[in-house]
Amino acid sequence: MALIVQKYGGTSVGSPERIRNVARKVAKFRAEGHQVVVVVSAMSGETNRLIALTKEVAANPDPRELDVVVSTGEQVTIGLLCMALQDIGEKAKSYTGGQVRILTDSAHTKARILNIDEAPIRRDLDEGNVVVVAGFQGVDEHGNITTLGRGGSDTTGVALAAALKADECQIYTDVDGVYTTDPRIVPEARKLDTITFEEMLELASLGSKVLQIRSVEFAGKYKVKLRVLSSFEEGGAGTLITVEEDKHMEQPVISGIAFARDEAKLTVVGAPDRPGIAYQILGPIADANIDVDMIIQNIGHDGTTDFSFTVARGDLAKAQKVLDGVKAHIGAKAIESDSTMCKVSIVGVGMRSHPGVASLMFRTLAEEGINIQMISTSEIKISVAIEDKYLELAVRALHKAFGLEAAA
Ligand code: ADP
Ligand code: ASP
Ligand code: MG
């Protein structure tokens, strides 16, 4: 008998029939003698609908109240799934994040889990219940409802698995595992049997939404056995996220390609080229709570320099306003912005031992006529910022150039 935490995403619970399908899947694990904790997302489209609703009422909704509204999607699903389970003869009990007491910090819309009281869940399991927990939500020390950021149900699943010391955390979704890149963009993408935590962390942080990055961080930290599987196809082994590289296999140089749409670039033109200028530009941006991604400072001419960086497109207007103030303060010539950027990244631990990866990447993009506007690298990834109309072309060309579609 094992204790398994299963998380089902929005598409997997997207209709009454699909919820009944999840109930049948869970019942099968119960019949094999396992204890099962299920984490569910809101039905597909529901979280987007709720966010849109808040925007119709207020241009800038208060984050506390935003969380009150968007957390309701998951509450519907836990109740429905319990009913479906009970309907086929399973004992089942639902919990919101607050009822479990998934304690988080107070950073509304992007809260972090601090602690989980797992005792009531354990009791219910021992009494033969399937325990169904709402993903994506928690409660802070003052009793305020919080949410964990988009895709946060993955993190609820892994955090519960860690707290319960579960034997495995299974993330059921609408693809049958982690692929070399998003199979919706590249149909030739190949499913990976395993991927290292290190690589999965990079892919998630660079835009692959198959797992929320915090869920991968959690799993790595607490040694949770984490697997991504299809909720629609039976019998597949999915993708196991592993600590170790598979030493028996010839490691491919690149394991995967990630991309992030909706980036924007800002340039401070003609900033005075003197010590402290980066701080004077980026300090106020950080104070405004805007995350900066790639940064470039050009070589100075005549005592001035151009300074560019990228932010999420949703933060562009805010960042521009901040820079207008900075421009006057430091005496820069102009602020330029470009809202049509995206980022494409190649990731692989094999990069460490293979020189020439960057040059193949740049050559491939050059052959497609794609202009690289910014580059950033780490030990196991290379990212480029390019115009967003080239995103699909770049991903497909790189996927082919690095031989990712071929069997490993
Ligand atoms: P869920 O609602 O189940 O949480 P998500 O939509 O959040 O599902 O994540 C699954 C989606 O992630 C897939 O449908 C796929 O389009 C996308 N995706 C992006 N990159 C990858 C990748 N490398 N491997 C598999 N899926 C990926
Ligand atoms: N429902 C939330 C979202 O759409 C959380 C999740 O699905 O993981 O982001
Ligand atoms: Mg998701």
UniProtKB/TrEMBL annotation:
The record, for Pfam families, names: AA_kinase, ACT, ACT_9
Which Gene Ontology MF annotations are present? aspartate kinase activity; ATP binding
Q: Which InterPro entries match?
A: AceGlu_kinase-like_sf, ACT-like_dom_sf, ACT_Aspartokinase, ACT_dom, AKii-LysC-BS, Asp/Glu/Uridylate_kinase, Asp_kin_monofn, Asp_kinase
- Keyword RNA-binding (UniProt): no
Which SUPFAM superfamilies does the annotation name? ACT-like, Carbamate kinase-like
Residues holding substrate: T47, E74
Annotated keywords: Amino-acid biosynthesis, ATP-binding, Kinase, Lysine biosynthesis, Nucleotide-binding, Transferase
Q: What are the ACT domain coordinates in residue numbering?
A: 266-337, 346-408
Q: Which GO terms describe its cellular component?
A: cytosol
Per its UniProt entry, what is the enzyme's top EC class, as one word? transferase
**Per the record, what are the reactions this protein catalyses?**
L-aspartate + ATP = 4-phospho-L-aspartate + ADP
For binding ATP, which residues are annotated in this chain's numbering?
Answer: K7, Y8, G9, G10, T173, D174, Y179, R184, K209, V210
Q: Which domain of life is it from?
A: Bacteria
Q: In which pathway does it act?
A: Amino-acid biosynthesis; L-methionine biosynthesis via de novo pathway; L-homoserine from L-aspartate: step 1/3; Amino-acid biosynthesis; L-threonine biosynthesis; L-threonine from L-aspartate: step 1/5; Amino-acid biosynthesis; L-lysine biosynthesis via DAP pathway; (S)-tetrahydrodipicolinate from L-aspartate: step 1/4
Instruction: Tell me its EC number(s), please.
Output: 2.7.2.4
* Gene Ontology biological process terms, A to Z: homoserine biosynthetic process; lysine biosynthetic process via diaminopimelate; threonine biosynthetic process
Q: Please tell me whether the keyword Acyltransferase is annotated for this protein.
A: no
Family statement drawn from the similarity comment of this UniProt entry: Belongs to the aspartokinase family.
Q: Which PANTHER family match?
A: ASPARTATE KINASE, ASPARTOKINASE
**Protein name per UniProt:** Aspartokinase
